[in-house]
Amino acid sequence: MATLTLYRSSAGSGKTFTLVKAYLGLVLNQPHVYRHTLAVTFTNKAMAEMKTRILDNLQDLADGKATPMQEALLADHPDNLTEDNIARQAQQVLTYLLHDYGRFGVSTIDSFFNRVVRAFARELGLPATFELATDKDQILSEVIDQLMLQYGQNEQLRTWLQDFAFEKLADDKSWNVKRDLQNIGSELFSERYQQIQHTLQAGAGDSQERIGRVLQDMKQHTSQFRQELQRRLQAILANVQAHDLQGSNFKHKHNAITTAEKLNQYFDPEKLSSLQKHLNKLESEQDLRADKAPESVKSAISQCASNGLWDELISLCDWLLTATPYYYTARHIRQNAYPFGVLADLNQTLQQYRREHELLLIADLNNLLKQVTQEAESPFIYEKVGSTYQHFLLDEFQDTSNFQWDNLQPLLVNAMSSGYESLVVG
């Protein structure tokens, strides 16, 4: 009877013990099944640990040692495993594995997918000797360097990067754009980009022109916000100064007036949240006056508040509540639009780099294999890989991406429809 067992676990809850027990339960009942069982992990460290635990437990069982694993296996398989035969079965499995170690089916998910893609290299139009690259940061850095070499020949790219550098300088940041390109370029390796890359590439020809129009709108929006904010701050500070007051006369060392003074001298977007925080604390005019302030100062603050300061502060608070989210949105669009505008150029340079070096990135494996699983039946995939897997043990299922699950699901469905057991841990 086909079963799919789902085991929910947390750190330290015996997840590896459960996986090893499931693997041993399969191979001890039928020693030849080691050839048809695949345990999938996410890291080389986890893979090495699982292989070691399996071999160590098999050795303990073969030596007849009474261990928690032996007790658990005897309890789970009372009809097939006994104290008399479990040592003999373990020794047989251990001999099989040591003499046929290449068929010891414990692998990282990337290694398994790499093996499948290599088997389909011809169908996918890949060179038979392609190299699997793992250091995407290094590759991206070299791709960006190649893109920058096009600076002199590509006038559109040159203009765009120059405008980007000037935009960064206007924000008091370094003109060097490489780090920004590195950040946005990392999206080229993500599944979400792979899902929309054809749409983005289709509109790549005029993408910078369209983004440029959006940038103009965002610049206008942020400029209008700053102008309105400055107008309101200057009105508040003019009222304060007209009553011979300054920010330090008001309640608390840091307050709405001192923050307004700093923002009026030098606009710092990070101080907007501080200004809003101070304004939100104001419940009445009394919150403006320090208890220990001289009576003359208290009187001046009361008069200032009555002459419009309080209304101006409340009006500023209400306006910021509405206007600030739009300002931050426009600001973030401005910060990310320039690197996004060269994403198509970056992707084109990456594809050229891959062809020249006959590289395949780990991020490509899932996408390529997805094409295979959509176009071929699962048994055919097994034949190409060279092994007919019947049982699957999947570790860290919560870390499985959508593409990875799309690739693994047909294999699990095929195994279950054939009456075999599988385990998913997450």
Summary tags:
7% strand, alpha/beta, five-stranded parallel sheet, two-stranded parallel sheet, 7 strands, single chain, 17 helices, 426 residues
User: What would you report as the Rg, rounded to the nearest angstrom?
Assistant: 33 Å
Distance between the termini: 23 Å
Counting copies of identical and different chains, the oligomeric state is: single chain
Number of β-strand runs: 7
* Biggest sheet character: 5 strands, parallel
**Shape summary:** elongated
Name the poorly predicted regions. Answer: none
> Strands across the major sheet, in which order?
1-7-6-2-3
Overall mean confidence score, pLDDT = 85
> Counting H and I runs of at least 4 residues, what is the number of helices?
17
Residues in helix, %: 55-70%
Strand content: 5-15%
Describe the structure.
It is built from 17 helices and seven strands. It is an alpha/beta fold and 426 residues long. It has a five-stranded parallel beta sheet, with helices on both faces. Strands 4-5 form a two-stranded parallel ribbon. Helix 17 (402-417) links the parallel strand 6 and strand 7. Helix 5 (109-119) packs across helix 15 and helix 11 (256-265) packs antiparallel against helix 12 (271-280). The longest helix is centred in the C-terminal third of the chain and has 47 residues, at 295-341. The two termini are 23 Å apart. The model has no long low-confidence stretch (mean pLDDT 85).
Task: Kindly summarize this structure in a few lines.
The chain has 17 helices and 7 strands. By secondary structure, the protein is of the alpha/beta class.
